Amino acid sequence: MAFYLIKKYRDRVLDNLSLAFGGEKDLKEITKLAREVFFNFTLTPLETIYTAAVPFGRFIKNIKITGREYLDAALAKGNGVIALGSHLGAFTLLGTRLAMVEGYSFNIIINEGNFPRLIKRLGNYQRGLGQKPFSPKPVTASVKKSLNCLRRNEILYLIADEQKRRGGLPVLFFGQTAFTPPGPAIFSLKTGAPILPMFVVREKGIPQNLFIGSPIEIERTSDEKKDTELLTAKFTKAIEDSIRQYPSQWPWLNRRWKLPYQKGEL
Q1: Most buried of 16, 36, 164, 245 (most Cβ within 10 A)?
Q2: Contacting residues for 221 by C-beta, under 8 A, at least 6 apart
Q3: How far is the C-alpha of 83 from the C-alpha of 159, rounded, in Å?
Q4: What pLDDT score was predicted for residue 148?
Q5: Is residue 266 pLDDT above 60, yes or no?
């Protein structure tokens, strides 16, 4: 229903899918994929509500973890772990699975946006599930909290698949330049915390698997700026690879390839 009723977002999804897959899929395939995108997109808030409604852990425990050995090996080094996230699949359940069921110390940055009261309630709910949410503002306090949790050898969950028109680095994403938040790269280079891709995917509409990938690494040089750019490009490619595996489970609503703000633009 959402696909047919909300033309503005339907057109945006179709345009983004055409930009990413126009050379690989025809219009019929892209339209079918767009309908599946809307189906998956509407599941995200329902999953959050359902998790709160069912008895403790029953729903979340059914999500299998693949690649846990990468997480444990990274934590064994003592520098914390940067969980590289995206809006792929049941991304809101990732922290709950690792914190509530497995007992990992899990930190997440949540932007209040235009719904501060709702986000505050969500934050309280996440704390009840063993997570440690905090705001990205003020920036100085957020950076300090991020560094401290890594120094405590904890997990810091950073979602890095949105367009960052201020301060983003231009890297390729599906063959097009996208201005990407470099936060995961900066924190990793600063602290030595490895970056591990993590995402939860659905099967037949039900969250089934939490995938943890191997560390994203580069050979460091004396040029920190270039190292940050290279690591940002590498983790963006890792996000793209996961989306290519499950394209209908990424929302495709973000204006991912929009140009950065120009001087004088509001």
Answers
A1: 16
A2: 227
A3: 8
A4: 97
A5: no
Residues 6+ apart with CB under 8 A from 119: 110, 111, 112, 113
Residue 225 pLDDT exceeds 80: yes
Q: Are 215 and 196 in contact (CB under 8 A)?
A: yes
Distance CA 100, CA 78 (A): 21
Collapse the DSSP code of 161 into the 3-class scheme (helix H, G, I; strand E, B; otherwise coil) and give the result.
coil
Q: State residue 112 phi and psi, 5-degree precision.
A: -70, -30
Helices (H), the chain: 2-5, 7-21, 27-53, 58-61, 68-75, 94-96, 116-128, 139-151, 183-191, 224-245
Question: What is the per-residue pLDDT across 68-115, written as a single tens digit (0 to 9) for each?
Answer: 999 999 999 999 999 999 999 999 999 999 998 899 999 998 876 655
| pLDDT greater at residue 69 or residue 166 | 69
Q: Rounded distance, CA 198 to CA 214, Å?
A: 10
Token pair recorded at residue 94: 């990732």
The residues that bridge with 157 in the sheet, in sequence order, are 83, 108
Closest CA to 13 of 257, 258, 252: 252
Q: Amino acid identity, residue 113?
A: G
Please indicate, yes or no, whether the overall pTM of this predicted structure exceeds 0.90. Answer: yes
> What is the spatial distance between Cα 137 and Cα 232, in angstroms, rounded to a whole number?
22
Give percent helix, percent strand, percent coil of the chain, each to the nearest 5.
50, 20, 35
7-21 and 27-53 helices, crossing angle to 10°: 120
| Cis before 138? omega within 30 | yes
